[in-house]
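Ticket #4471: structure output looks truncated?

Reporter: J.K.
Steps to reproduce: submitted the chain below (799 residues) through the standard prediction queue, then opened the result file.
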Amino acid sequence: SGIFWLLAARPSPLEVPRDASSWKAALVGVANWFLSLPLGLSARQIFLVAGLATLVVLMVIVWLIPVPTLRVLFGLLVRLVYRVRVHGLENVPRQGGALLVPNHLSWVDGLLVMYFSPRKVRMFADRRHFDAPLLRRLSRQTGVIPVDPGRRSVIRAVREARESLVRGELVCVFPEGCLSRTGQLQGFNPGFLTIVKGTGAPVIPVYLHGLWGSIFTFERGKYFWKWPRQWFRRVSIHFGRPFSAADVHQVRSAVEQLGEKAMEETVQTTRPLGRRLVRMCRRNMFRVKVADSTGAALTGAGLLSRALVLRRLLRRGVLGADEQAVGILLPPSVAAVVTNAALTLDRRVSVNLNYTASDEVMNLCIQQAKIRHVITSRRVIEKFDYHIDAELVHLEDFKPQVTWLDKLSAALGTWLVPAAILERRLRLTRVATGDVLAIIFTSGSTGRPKGVMLTHGNVGSNVDGFQQVLQLSRRDVLLGILPFFHSFGFTVTLWAALVLDPKVVYHFSPLEPRPIGKLCREQGATILLATPTFLRTYVRRCERDDFASLEVVITGAEKLPPDVADAFEKKFGVRPLEGYGTTELSPVASVNVPPDRVPSPYQVCHKEGTVGRPLPGVAAKVVDLETGQDLGPGQAGMLLIRGPNVMKGYLNHPELTAEVIRDGWYVTGDVAEIDRDGFIRITGRESRFSKIGGEMVAHLRVEEALGQLLPTEDDAVHFVVTGVEDPRKGERLVVLHTGFPKPPERICRELVELGLPGLWIPSPDSFAQVDEIPLLGSGKLDLRRIRQLAEEVFGTRNP
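Returned output as attached by the reporter:
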């Protein structure tokens, strides 16, 4: 047994079995004779005495040699609760000092690093955790470096750690300083660099993945006192390559990129979304999951049943066996949710088409995706009067086609057939996370729309990351107003309803503030996802009580102006925060976390003017626009994102895919800077920059300055800054506007007074009044048309 092996630990490995066995046999024989003959005990009493004696011996062993004993016990416990895989052990040097720098998600992080490290590790730890005598003794034997609050204690601990590194020992410190309350990687305290400075010891980044959600984390807002959601949790520990640390940002980026690698591997083992949809519906059989402003509402059972019926009808008389991509032309509603669910259960690729686009653009999308059928409703077709190059399938026509056999089959699949068998029957077990789930066409703000292929792993990981940082629960109600042809609406407000526990309520248009306010008030919505343009409208037209239940408001697609955030918070009591993403990123890459969702007032999880930190498992970096070299904190450059949310590629355009995905990093086209705490600040788009006098001038910064000088009362776009060719400078800034109350000469003087650099100020003859500013159907600037209009107005053309 493990105890006898420990007692025989002194002899050589070859002698251990012989010594342990002979000693054990002699002891058992003598004890059995003494208890049975002289004392006359029965067999039952002998077993009782043996058990008590074993317990006493165990306690003595724990006291005498606590470290090996507890190591054995901890190993047994870990293997019972977790399924741990360790990667990169070859990166831990066999000899010599090194500083291990891991992320910090749970209270067992340090124990796991110590147990799975191939060498003894000296761990930084708060002295207050070792008040008990046995724990103090254990900490001394394991080489824990205790730290008390206070400058003297910290200096002493750092000195002791440096001496350990010089002696060739491994030291581990958690640079975040405390447990993450959101699962996101927090800012690193720079003090850990003092430990390695001048010692010659390298830094080894470490990432612990899979622990979030266990009882030892702050998932669901509390620690330990909660039922575990999952047994045999898959945990991975990744040891990165050692390197000489130059700055905090370099180390934090290395840990973040290890986290991205860990997430990529995890996604490969998760269930595809169709199977998760089945299981979600089974968990919420009697609970309303989706509803809309027409009064339609479905429980989990109702959603699964209707999706199964629609799947049978589509297979029976509409869709061919070889037909993959299927168009959907429906606003956000219960019907649209059921349609998307039915196509996923049938292993088809859903293509939610932009019903605000022109016939030309829509037919271009249909041709690219080779769509033969478009599922819609007569009300939508009557309202928009489309001329589509595909066969229209009206949902209203299916109602009389439903037979009793369809209903029986759906009822059996919903209520009686075990989920695993239903998944096999639907052949969902043949679907891999790398298979395409949907094609979403970009808005085309800088050119023609491109079809973005998003896989089950892309969307699933994005939904899980969003859920993790915002800690969504069954009590949450999402207000779904973004269309499903918008990637934000598709991933968060559609698939969050289909695979997570929150309820979602829909309204078909984000441009109708009063019905949206009524829906929010009646349904008690807690989360709103919208654009700043929509928020400005709601401030003006919704009543104060309409949004009283909101706890989280996240904006995207455009920069959140401070005045909009202030006005919304003043009227409705909740401050909107920004997130960031693109269609190619499924779409969320980063998000600010509201204070109400962070169970600690001491952990900063949002910053004004930024788009937040990357989601867990997503890595971000900034590189020089010209050289491609990595940049440090606070330096503006091209933003690159890497993670399981990065698209599979552009439909039919591998050459375009290769241009924007380089070594796994997606080139966003956005210019940004990342601060020391990991928050991303977007400063503009590459296409929204002009190179003047060798300097990159951000159009967005000039627009912000103009907005300060020329505030507007309504939510319309009144001006835009762009660039046109100039024979002298190569390029110059121009301003298109629908009418200014001040002459251009005065505006230019006031821009100088604001402190804007001279190169960033358009000349007075670079202002031109136009009838309207070109916008896309989503409300974003149509940059391609804006550039064309500026060239026409100012008489220039691209070569």
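Triage note (M.O.): checked the attachment and the full token line is present. The chain has 25 helices and 33 strands.
Status: closed, working as intended.
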